[in-house]
What we know:
six-stranded mixed sheet, Spore Coat Polysaccharide Biosynthesis Protein SpsA, Chain A, about 20% helix, alpha/beta, nine-stranded mixed sheet, UDP N-Acetylglucosamine Acyltransferase, domain 1
Amino acid sequence: MFSIPNNSNDPGKQTLALILAGGAGSRLKTLTKWHSKPAVPFGGKYRTIDFPLSNCINSDIRKIGILTQYKSHSLNLHIQKAWNFQRTELGEFVDLLPAQQRVKDDWYLGTANAIYQNLDIIKSHDAKYVLILAGDHIYKMDYGLMIRHHVEKGAKMTVGCLEAPLEEADQFGVMTVDSDQRIVEFEEKPKAAKPLKDNPGKVLASMGIYVFDAEFLYQILNQDEERNTSSHDFGKDIIPNTIDTYHISAFRFRDPKTNETAYWRDVGTIDAYYQANLGLLDVTPELNLYDSSWPIWTYQEQLPPAKFVFNDDDRRGMAVDSMVSAGCVVSGSEVERSLLFNNVRVNSFTKITNSIILPNVEIGRNCRLKNVVIDQGCQVPPNTLIGYDAEEDRRKYHVSPQGVVLVSPEMLGQKFCNVA
């Protein structure tokens, strides 16, 4: 008779991971017109949510729930295609937990309320620890190290954190810890943050990653739900209301090889999204997608290899310092320090520089594109010039604070709806 192996001494096997994946991502403009933030394409062939999901699998955490809300159809399709390989007979799963008004007539009101509304489902899995993650951050992390830290410290809750620049403190929850890494102060997005004593140019910032003793999580969420003044958010309410009474620990996210702050990016703005993608093109990128010891898993459409055609002096199909994904054809054109997602067609006599071209785009002949993000499904007309005249770009497209030009089908006068 088949039996499930007993892994009662492994904290990871006793952990349920919950990924918050309902964010609207309005700062990404048209990139989230048809998608939630976790479903936005990244790195040539991935979706943003593939990174925390891959971290779970690589950390041997195989019980995973994904809490969805905003425009979740494309995310649901991706999860079904990419993440249905778990073995349910071994107690493994990746479940979608959409906002269902299970408790009241409200949708998810905050990060803590999203978990609260699914407590009946969460309790049914009888986990000892609950790991709560954001679905829209790019990083590689062994969650097992954080869970073991949580257990060893005897904490009720542990907050993943890293050192961030002092001038960016108003974008994070910022904490102060004692010598045992216990959190003694916490403030969400402060205007005037306390710098680290041993590193005055930095603050200790929350990554939005939490480990809870399951029973403590249930207790604290019920208490928070009864508090009329609460916004039902982990950073704004749960952490500040517990640090004086309970042991809340900080786990510093560091590279195990160098002990320096590890790579982590919130790609929630056009500029951050652009920089994180182009950073993959460095000779030695901070985020190594070619590391076979920590693979990033995803769904791969069955496509032919990328192809480069024509080799004339004035018409050479080539790409340098670039990543070109499957299904692409670069026909007599030059691609320089750019990232082409699947199924991109670049027609002759075009030059693309420092740009990100999302899936299923066709770029006409004699185009010049620089510092642009071309959204999915665009048909860029021949002789188009983008990224060379800031005033003209602002008139036609969206230009970010750092000068990145975002182009969508609607901006080109094309009616196109990509829900996948």
